[in-house]
């Protein structure tokens, strides 16, 4: 095993290339665009860089390449007392993926009285960042339209409209729901309900559409309920109303994990056992889902794969000037637990 030596003042790129038996360009790729190298080459070069203690001059690299090696991430508004664990996991995955590529993430948000577009323009004008990473992308998202018009690099977690850069990656929520409904149908359920919070986000619409497509495919009887997202008592009341009818569903699919707390409460108030009298499944795989009794069947978002795809797509634009011609849909990961029953 080699031991790391203190950085020698005279160590150059040529020294590293000679020791690794590769070209200077390969060393540059290892430092600036590791995604271009084969895994074994990157591993060998990285080991030599570490052994020699070589550290490039960041200011010189920026001057030569014209990049700051910084990606701005406009963070979604959140409640510090009740943070969104899903987006926290996404941020961790983004920081890891960008760090592996030699970039840093700058968290940004408009100042009081400043629009989102003004905040983007401020960073672009200051030449502070090389590109933007957007999340929670909505239909007709003003940030996407603004960056498209400015011709500035960005990648989006969520789909952009036709005519805009297709540098996006997203979860195939509709197909994940179709697969989930197929699993429920295979267990003999014929009456299935879908509970969704109000709001109209595109990913929630995809989940609903996937549920309905799966139900049609398997000829299931369905009920679709919209429930108030910010009122726990309203969620419980709506679910009890759903479960108290004569032709109550034997399975309930919920648009997001957090709504299942109300479903569990309502089911037990109606004398129903989750996993026995009522199958329950949801979407997101929040940390709480494994601790519910019984543990919840859900669809997990592949956050690391999403983050890596977004960073790779953004770096292709920044470093190679190549904008992807099509977005990337990634499959959700079905996690089957006892709430679905035998």
Automatic annotation (TrEMBL):
Superkingdom of origin organism: Bacteria
InterPro entries, A to Z: Cro/C1-type_HTH, HTH_LacI, LacI/GalR-like_sensor, Lambda_DNA-bd_dom_sf, Peripla_BP_I
HTH lacI-type domain sequence ranges: 11-65
Domain HTH cro/C1-type as annotated: residue spans: 8-55
Keywords: DNA-binding, Transcription, Transcription regulation
Signal peptide: none
Pfam families in alphabetical order: LacI, Peripla_BP_3
GO MF term (any one): DNA binding
Gene3D superfamilies hit by this protein: 3.40.50.2300, lambda repressor-like DNA-binding domains (1.10.260.40)
Name this protein carries in UniProt: LacI family DNA-binding transcriptional regulator
């Amino acid at each position: 095993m080699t031991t790391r030596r203190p950085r020698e003042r005279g160590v150059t790129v040529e020294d590293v290339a000679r020791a690794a038996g590769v070209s200077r360009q390969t060393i540059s790729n290892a430092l600036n665009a590791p995604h271009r190298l084969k895994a074994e080459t990157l591993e060998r070069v990285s080991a030599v860089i570490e052994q020699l203690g070589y550290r490039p001059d960041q200011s010189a690299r920026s001057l030569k390449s014209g990049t700051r090696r910084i990606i701005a991430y406009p963070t979604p508004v959140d409640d510090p007392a009740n943070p969104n664990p899903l987006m926290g996991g996404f941020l961790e995955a983004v920081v890891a993926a960008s760090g592996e590529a030699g970039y840093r993430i700058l968290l940004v948000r408009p100042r009081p009285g400043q629009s989102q577009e003004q905040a983007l323009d401020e960073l672009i004008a200051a030449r502070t960042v090389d590109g933007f990473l957007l999340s929670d992308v909505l239909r007709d998202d003003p940030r996407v339209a603004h960056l498209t018009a400015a011709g500035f690099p960005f990648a989006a977690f969520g789909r952009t409209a036709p005519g805009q850069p297709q540098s996006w990656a997203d979860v195939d929520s509709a197909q994940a729901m179709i697969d989930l409904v197929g699993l429920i149908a295979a267990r003999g359920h014929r009456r299935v309900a879908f509970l969704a919070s109000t709001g109209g986000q595109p990913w929630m619409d995809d989940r609903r559409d996937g549920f309905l497509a799966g139900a049609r495919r398997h000829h299931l009887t369905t009920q679709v309920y919209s429930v108030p997202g910010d009122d726990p008592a309203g969620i419980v009341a709506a679910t009890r109303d759903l479960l108290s009818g004569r032709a109550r569903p034997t399975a309930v699919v919920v648009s997001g994990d957090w709504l299942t707390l109300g479903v569990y409460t309502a089911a037990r108030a109606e004398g129903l056992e989750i996993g026995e009298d009522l199958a329950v499944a949801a979407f997101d795989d929040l940390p709480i889902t494994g601790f519910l009794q019984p543990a919840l069947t859900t669809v997990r978002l592949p956050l690391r794969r999403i983050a890596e795809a977004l960073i790779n797509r953004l770096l292709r634009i920044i470093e190679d000037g190549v904008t992807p011609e099509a977005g990337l849909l990634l499959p959700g990961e079905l996690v089957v637990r006892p709430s679905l029953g035998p």
